[in-house]
Design brief:
heterotrimer; A mainly alpha (156); B mainly alpha (104); C mainly alpha (108); A: 156 residues; mainly alpha; 2 domains; 6 helices; C: mainly alpha; Helix Hairpins; elongated
Chain lengths: 156, 104, 108
């Protein structure tokens, strides 16, 4: 974790005087200490190959966000908004903790769906119209998160 | 770079439109959970497009890095804050609005 | 164009403030304040470009983090309050069965 923080400091500071580098080293040490005390030692399964698969997922989620944001904006401006909120659990079994967080956050990040609660093997989702919930259940996003987690071979 | 300028203007205009729509939705939607959706548009589409539009007109790479960091932080904290809020509200028993209910 | 984006952000911030004033209930208010905060981050970033002062972006980063921590902290506090109240109520109920547990908070 420490190299990441050090890189972050150098990127944001951009100065290489002794004083600032020492201050940076102290900050990195302090943050690592605090993170350890808070029980955040492991990197939760993030790795270099994982990071390499990330851009493709980000492009896809960006497209999804734009498409569904347009749909929600239509509802905002329509004279009588077509709102039929639905709440249901969608399956999310057999995922690492990181994948579960990615999935739940992606659901919330996409306008129109909102994750309310994350269980061991499912996510409770609130959606503006039932169609969004059905699209989620069809599993396109779930498949992509699985692929992000395990690579193409295991992701099917 | 006229192309970059035009692309930047288009992204900024679209982002501004999404942001205002989210604000209007926050006032118009009937209950707490639907309002979280409205606030979510401004967090994801609005913030992303505006920051991308600014990224296309950065004078130096240091500014670009800072814009990317802001984008990353907003993309991570926005949905997390929404989830924490919705989770707390549901645990506290805030009822879910169904079609035909009065506004609240 | 930059000025138009700033105007849009200001309008949205006013709308969020209106929702924060109207409520109803604590969750609507926290939601509105959270949105006000993220729009402030964007506003600071855009203002940096308008005035040609990219240093503003550092303030934006800081504001984004502080805003998130503040929202989570407020929620944790209200819930610790509730948990504490519940625990105390349980203890009281054990000790003196005739004291009903009261919960004066306005629910959303």
């Amino acid at each position: 974790m420490a190299p990441l923080f050090a890189l972050f400091w150098v990127l944001l500071s951009g100065h290489f005087t002794t004083l600032l580098l020492v201050l940076g080293a102290l900050s990195v040490a302090l943050v690592c200490l605090l993170a350890r005390r808070a029980g955040l030692t492991a990197s939760a399964g993030a790795s270099i190959p994982h990071a390499l698969r990330l851009p493709r997922y980000l492009l896809w989620i960006g497209k999804e966000v734009l498409v569904s944001a347009v749909a929600v904006v239509r509802r905002v401006w329509s004279p009588r908004p077509d709102l039929r909120p639905a709440v249901a659990a969608t399956p999310a079994a057999g995922m690492s903790e990181l994948a579960q967080v990615t999935y739940a956050n992606s659901i919330t990040y996409t306008p129109g769906t909102l994750s309310l609660d994350v269980d061991e093997d499912q996510v409770h989702v609130h959606s503006l119209v039932p169609a969004d919930l059905e699209a989620l259940r069809a599993g396109a996003m779930l498949r992509r998160v699985h692929r992000l987690d395990q690579g193409r071979r295991a992701g099917r | 770079m006229i192309v970059l300028d035009i692309a930047s203007v288009v992204l900024l205009a679209a982002g501004a439109l999404f942001v205002v729509s989210g604000g209007v939705g926050l006032l118009r939607f009937p209950d707490f959970y639907t309002r979280v959706h409205a606030a979510g548009i401004t967090d994801s589409a609005g913030a992303g497009l505006i920051l991308l539009g600014l990224l296309l007109r950065t004078p130096s790479w240091e500014t670009g890095v800072r814009l990317l960091v802001i984008m990353l932080f907003l993309a991570l904290t926005g949905p997390t804050a929404s989830y924490v809020l919705a989770f707390a509200a549901r645990r506290d028993g805030v009822p879910i609005w169904r079609e035909g209910d009065p506004r609240r | 164009m930059i000025v138009a984006v700033m105007a849009a952000l200001l309008v949205t911030m006013v709308l969020a403030l209106a929702r924060a004033f109207v409520g109803p209930g604590r969750y609507n208010r926290i939601l509105a304040i959270n949105m006000f905060g993220t729009k402030t981050v964007l506003f600071v970033a855009v203002a940096g470009f308008l005035f040609g002062r990219p240093e503003f972006l550092d303030i934006g980063i800081l504001y984004a983090l502080v805003n998130f921590v503040a929202v989570v902290a407020v929620l944790r506090l209200t819930h610790y309050d509730d948990d504490l109240a519940d625990d105390l109520a349980d203890d009281l109920a054990d000790d003196l069965a005739d004291e009903p547990a009261t919960d004066g908070e306005d629910r959303a």
